[in-house]
Design a protein that fits this description.
Blueprint lengths: L12 H14 L3 E5 L5 E4 L1 H7 L3 H4 L10 H17 L9 E6 L5 E13 L2 E10 L1 H15 L9 H18 L2 E9 L2 H28 L4 E6 L2 E9 L3 H20 L2 E3 L2 E3 L3 E8 L6 H18 L4 E3 L4 H18 L5 E9 L5 E12 L3 E3 L1 H11 L2 H19 L3 H4 L2 E6 L1 H5 L3 H12 L6 E5 L8 H14 L2 E7 L6 H6 L4 E4 L1 H4 L6 H17 L2 E4 L5 H10 L4 E2 L9 H10 L4
Parallel strand pairs: 11-12, 14-16, 16-17, 17-18, 18-19, 19-20
Antiparallel strand pairs: 1-2, 1-5, 3-4, 4-5, 6-8, 6-11, 7-8, 9-10, 13-14, 13-21, 14-15
Helix pairs in contact: 7-8, 10-11, 12-15
Bound molecules: ligand C2E and calcium ion (2 copies).
The site of ligand C2E has 22 residues, from β14, α11, α12, β16 and β18.
Length: 578
């Protein structure tokens, strides 16, 4: 009888009898025959090897014993259906499924099943190949193609695939996902201080943290270097609500990343900058989405680090502007467009103690560009090192010049050192060189560091600060109160001064809370033996309140805006008290 959908083998009984056993026992595949009820009638050697049973253990028993639970339950019903309808679902169709070994192990198999009809009696022949190794090899290849070897997380290609899938899903049924691009802040200096093995450990730890934080509600991938991507799907269908959820996720992630790491026995603090966008029904390619998220991350990084930014279409323009500014900045030093201005620092009598040197850039077509705009750009590109060295040399030359006049010889100059500069291994030698070459008095040079330098390895930091201290250079902690400083840092590090951030001063004469905070900072400085200065003092009443808190050094528009060196000198010479 012909079964169009299920090819039946046609046996010549004479041949079968002659070669049957020999063939059965020598093929690599398991060959199992059953009668019409599914009871096994033969079980070759390969079947024994693959399933673990000897032939005599299984002959006469139902073949479903070789199948794991879901298949086993359906097996008898399949046979009954086939017998009555001859509708082949499994028979004649080779497929990958699972086998059950005698020891209970479930393993992948390739199964092809044929029906034989002889004298009106149906029987079945199953050919089974163990494909565990093949599957293992396939998943290894998949791991190589889709996973990152260092962290075990999926890679960039995987993210692009997932984005493509989300696109088509959202196009059909709507919905939102968040794509978050994360980049560890100052990873390069982490690598320098921790060594490469430490850097790798930091990357692994970061991957784990991100994964932990998403808690199964999103997926993390490593894109390469210190860049990670997260995809959080199933956000609200309302775009505004989804945006809010995405922002909350960013905050949670940032918080989680901020906690201290234990890397190679050292405590290590990091942070990251995040760029985020909502993935919707999608006209943009997955590659473009990833590029946009990266742009938003760069924006976060250039604004303040340790923060997140949403992608906005105008960021493309911003990026172009940044690139052109950076280009111009590289030329600015050669074209002598950079200059320092000096803002006086005075005591309670109004006597000038020194000045903070602040950088100015006179751009040929844009006019004055604020350091708040170009310093982050210079930091990001690493160009700040060159700029910083120029500032250092200028300040030292100025100090050397002041040394020759009685009225200016006692003045100090404070220069701003960004964390990138400070972390550069060449920084301390460069300070020493600049002092030696210029002949400036090291005791008149003050370095203003922000709390962001405190996020690195404490022992390395202490070593550098001590080396500077040994030269006689003063160390001031800028923007105090806005970062992470703990008492432990302040106690252990050889600092000379805290500079209370302007944000505490703005409302000190109106806000009791700010006044209490400032008083606390001043008292703390007294206990720790540090001097204290307030920045951004604009009004007499702010100054009064600061004096009442015990703070006796000031800098701000009240005593003088940043000015040229000549103007500062004139101010010192006329010695105008406030
Ligand atoms: P900063 O170190 O906190 O400097 C103080 C900023 O506040 C200066 O802005 C100064 O002009 C401004 N300021 C001073 N007094 C007052 C006041 O009474 N009221 C108000 N509203 N503002 C006041 P500037 O010069 O624009 O500098 C901005 C930032 O750029 C600086 O903040 C510093 O972080 C960075 N910067 C400036 N020069 C350098 C430099 O040579 N190297 C590095 N690495 N950073 C620099
Ligand atoms: Ca400063
Ligand atoms: Ca400051």
């Amino acid at each position: 009888m012909n079964l169009p959908m299920c090819p039946a083998l046609v046996f010549d009984p004479a041949d079968a009898a002659q070669h049957g056993q020999a063939i059965l026992d020598n093929v690599l595949e398991a060959i199992i025959t059953t009668d019409s009820r599914g009871l096994m009638t033969s079980f070759n050697r390969a079947a024994t090897r693959i399933f673990g049973y000897a032939a005599q253990e299984v002959i006469g028993r139902n073949v479903s014993m070789l199948m794991p639970a879901p298949d086993r339950a359906q097996h008898d019903a399949h046979m009954v259906r086939y017998e009555s309808t001859r509708e082949a679902r499994v028979i004649g169709v080779g497929r990958e499924t699972f086998g059950l070994h005698k020891c209970g192990l479930v393993f992948p198999i390739q199964l092809s099943l044929s029906a034989i009809e002889r004298d009106g009696q149906l029987s079945y022949v199953g050919l089974v190949r163990d494909i565990s190794e093949q599957k293992e090899a396939e998943s290894h290849i998949e791991r190589l193609a889709y996973y990152d070897a260092l962290t075990g997380l999926p890679n960039r290609r995987w993210v692009l695939d997932q984005l493509a899938q989300l696109h088509s899903r959202f196009a059909k049924q709507g919905g939102h996902a968040a794509l978050i691009f994360a980049d560890i802040d100052r990873f390069k200096s982490a690598n320098d201080t921790l060594g490469h093995a430490g850097g790798d450990a930091l990357l692994r730890a970061t991957g784990m943290r991100l994964k932990d934080c998403l808690d199964g509600q999103g997926l993390v991938a490593r894109l390469g270097g210190d860049e990670f991507a997260m995809l959080i799907s199933d956000l609200d269908t309302d775009a505004d609500m989804a945006q809010l959820e995405a922002a909350q996720w960013c905050q949670r992630l940032l918080h989680r990343l901020r906690c201290e790491h234990q890397i190679a026995g050292q405590e290590y603090r990091t942070s990251a900058s995040l760029g985020v966008l909502l993935v919707r029904d999608g006209r943009e390619s997955p590659e473009a989405l990833l590029a946009h998220a990266e742009l938003a991350m760069q924006q976060a990084k250039s604004e303040s680090r340790d923060t997140y930014r949403f992608y906005a279409a105008e960021m493309g323009r911003l990026a172009a502007l940044r690139a052109s500014l950076l280009n111009d900045l590289r030329l600015a030093l050669q074209r002598q467009e950079l200059a320092l201005v000096y803002q006086p620092q005075v005591d309670e009598w109004g006597d000038v103690l020194g000045a903070e040197a602040l950088l100015r850039w006179r751009h040929p077509s844009r006019g004055m560009v604020s350091p708040a705009d170009f310093i982050p750009l210079a930091e990001q590109s690493g160009f700040i090192i060159e700029i910083g060295q120029w500032v250092l040399r200028q300040a030292c030359d100025m100090l050397a010049g002041w040394r020759r006049h009685r009225q200016t010889a006692v003045l100090s100059i404070a220069i701003n050192i960004s964390a990138t500069e400070f972390l550069d291994p060449e920084f301390v030698p460069a300070v020493s060189r600049a002092l030696a070459v210029s002949g400036a008095d090291p005791r008149r040079l003050k370095l203003e560091l922000t709390e962001s330098v405190l996020t690195v390895d404490l022992s390395d930091l202490a070593r550098k600060l001590s080396a500077l201290k040994c030269m006689g250079v003063g160390l001031s902690l800028d923007d105090f109160g806005t970062g992470y400083s703990s008492m432990a840092y302040l106690r252990e590090l050889p600092l000379d001064q805290l500079k209370i951030d302007r944000s505490f001063i703005v409302e000190i004469d109106r806000s009791a809370r700010d006044e209490v905070l400032v008083r606390g900072m001043v008292d703390m400085c007294r206990v720790l033996g540090l001097s204290v200065i307030a920045e951004g003092v604009e009004t007499p009443s702010q100054r009064e309140r600061l004096l009442a808190c015990g703070c006796t050094s000031f800098q701000g528009y009240l005593t003088g805006r940043p000015m040229s060196a000549e103007d500062l000198r004139a101010m010192v010479e006329t010695c105008q008290p406030v």
